[in-house]
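Support reply, case 0932

Customer input (verbatim):
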Amino acid sequence: MSLADRWAGFLMKTGSDKEKQNIVWNMIGSFCYAFASMVLAFLVMRIAGEDEGGVFAFGYSTLGQQMFIVAYFGLRPFQITDGTGEYRFGDYLRHRYLTCGLAVLAGLLFLLHSGYTARKALAVFLLVCYKVIDGFADVYESEFQRSGNLHLTGKSNAFRTILSVSVFLAALLVCQSLTAACAAAVAAQAAGVLIFDVTVLKRMPEIDTRGDFSRAVPLTKAAFLLFLSVFLDFYIFSASKYAIDAYMDDAASGYFNVIFMPTSVINLAAGFVIRPVLTYLTDYWNGKDYGAFERLLGKITALIWALSMFAVALTCFLGRPVLKIMERLLGPSYEGSLAQYHLPFIIVVLGGGFYAVLNLYYYVLVILRRQKIIFGIYVVLTAAAAALAPAMVVKRGIYGAACAYLILMAVMAAGFVAGGLWACRKGKENG
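Our regenerated output:
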């Protein structure tokens, strides 16, 4: 047995209770991924300064994440709910080659017209590449989940994140260069995909790796509205960040990213709740067990909202002390820089609660294959975001950015809940 076979066998091992391992590793992987997203920009601010931290925050969590969406093309919910095997893994993989190339090109074109300095543009481009590789890994992780091996998805998420983040921080500390650290992170991310995804899937004979590029056309048509919807969703979610990057300085991007961190915690908690039940919701709906579908949906909605309100309450009472602690961790030069944003902090967390709820109903509409409803909501909100976020940032700075985010998330959540409930009623009538 080769070393690669032994390594794959080690990762694939689950013990007697595979379902428990699926849940546990999904939680571990989601936590590692979300934790890295939360703290990396903060650590860059501490190590390299507020301007470098702002550049990293925008490149990693805004433009890089937008290009991640281009790479994965909104296909994760489509792929994991493709229970009938309409498309083989090989079809999804070949489609991903094309979308990853498109994402790199789109990121490059944005940067060529951005007006950034060469140093900032190079750092942001490397972060785009990092996120595109993350999008490539997603096709493997989605297939692991579709085949009932969610624990492999969690392990990939956890181990790839730990590897790439560790290499990034080590390079930043040693080289004191954001560009060098980003280049090292890209190399580590690529190695992680090979070690934790490609090597494992090759040793899963039940997964059909055959594919044909000609299948990319019908797959693109099937998922195109879904992709546009996810792309627009992230633009709406990040409209305030784009506006800050356009109308304020790099330091402001870093500060807004810090007060934005709790939204990752809320989404992490929501992901713990949502991901494991998606297959159950799909099975209940396809099996016409509408009562079980509605009961589970109601329970998950209530749980997500309760967790969100708990987060808002904590932010109200503990937000200011937490921000002061962050100032101390960042260093003496940051004294007073974060505590002044306590109210925007609360507003952003409340907006994150609405976003967590709308994500659940987004998946409901995907299960019901109601992509047109999803797309319609996003088109309307994209137009609103393009007008609202810049206007509020120009007028009120970071406070305006937080208010714009809350308004957009609340309106979008209302649209998704209403659309999801209407689609369920229509589906039952026609079923």
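We compared this against your earlier run and they match. Two observations from our side: The chain has a mean pLDDT of 88. The chain has 14 helices and no strands. Please reopen the case if you see a mismatch on your end.
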